[in-house]
């Protein structure tokens, strides 16, 4: 059976059965979300959930399993068997029809919208798979999402650095590293890293620019990587999450540091590792 035939068969099944959230909408989870996002809207402390949390309530959790009639899982299996074994999310479009309230029990259904391909992309040849998920409270539609992924065949592995996926939203950052600059996305007066397509306040008319960071910061957290092997790296090495003077945090390798001497609060400065003409990676070195 071809990919197109399998996709048509899965799409013909229509929506999956409703999959209920593990827990009703609850204030504790809302509090965790708003604290992480930095949303201080007072309504969200009074029993109303932020609309963007719609997907949170029905996530499977760490040990969750896809339902047997889940169309995205079925389509992923088809493409895996056809050799398209890698996946990257490309975009999603969400619509919120009303706020959810504490105590409501949300359920989700999913249907396959389209499978388009094969398409040749920078990541490799692949198929764009689009699903539509709808969230319900009883028989009332409260939110829906169009979700698209690229399922692609990875190119043969070769030695060298792992390469980031560069998008329209992150291109300015990687152009900056090639120029020896740490560029931070700015939405009005708000700095954000990693950069994203939407401002923190959700203003669809807003356009970002960027500022150049000083490159000075301190180690906020770090990990010493011992295993497994990483292309282009000698083990062990240190990956540090650095809090920059500007207030944002950024990941990078801590170059030339003795893992035993790295500590929280350690001053560092930015450095840049040229991989080739197209890629320069940000990194850190201990401030002297």
Automatic annotation (TrEMBL):
Q: Which domain of life is it from?
A: Bacteria
Q: What range(s) does the FAS1-like dehydratase domain occupy?
A: 21-144
Domain ChsH2 C-terminal OB-fold residues, every copy: 210-273
* Pfam families attached to this UniProt entry: FAS1_DH_region, OB_ChsH2_C
Which PANTHER family does UniProt cross-reference here? BLR3430 PROTEIN
| Official protein name in the record | DNA-binding protein
What is the native source organism of this protein? Answer: Amycolatopsis endophytica
Q: What is the lineage of its organism?
A: Bacteria, Bacillati, Actinomycetota, Actinomycetes, Pseudonocardiales
């Amino acid at each position: 059976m071809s990919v197109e035939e399998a996709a048509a068969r899965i799409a013909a099944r229509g929506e999956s059965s409703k999959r209920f959230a593990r827990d009703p909408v609850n204030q504790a989870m809302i509090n965790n979300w708003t604290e992480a996002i930095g949303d201080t809207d007072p309504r969200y402390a009074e029993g109303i959930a932020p609309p963007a949390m719609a997907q949170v309530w029905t996530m499977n959790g760490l040990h969750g399993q896809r339902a047997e009639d889940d169309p995205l899982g079925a389509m992923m299996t088809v493409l895996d068997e056809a050799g398209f074994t890698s996946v990257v999310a490309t975009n999603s479009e969400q619509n919120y029809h009303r706020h959810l309230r504490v105590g409501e029990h949300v359920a989700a259904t999913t249907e396959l919208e389209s499978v388009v391909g094969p398409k040749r992309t920078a990541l490799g040849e692949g198929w764009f798979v689009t699903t539509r998920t709808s969230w319900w409270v009883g028989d009332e539609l409260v939110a829906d999402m169009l979700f698209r992924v690229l399922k692609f065949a990875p190119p043969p592995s070769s030695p060298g650095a792992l390469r980031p996926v560069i998008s329209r939203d992150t291109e300015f950052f990687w152009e900056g590293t090639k120029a020896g600059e740490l560029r931070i996305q700015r939405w009005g007066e708000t700095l954000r890293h990693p950069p994203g397509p939407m401002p923190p306040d959700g203003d669809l008319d807003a356009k970002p620019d960027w500022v150049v960071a000083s490159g000075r910061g301190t180690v906020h957290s770090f990990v010493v990587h011992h295993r497994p092997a990483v292309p282009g790296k000698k083990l062990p090495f240190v990956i540090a999450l650095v809090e920059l003077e500007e207030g944002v945090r950024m990941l990078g390798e801590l170059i030339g540091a003795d893992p035993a001497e790295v500590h929280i609060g350690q001053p560092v400065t930015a450095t840049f590792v040229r991989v080739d003409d197209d890629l320069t990676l940000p990194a850190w070195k201990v401030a002297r």
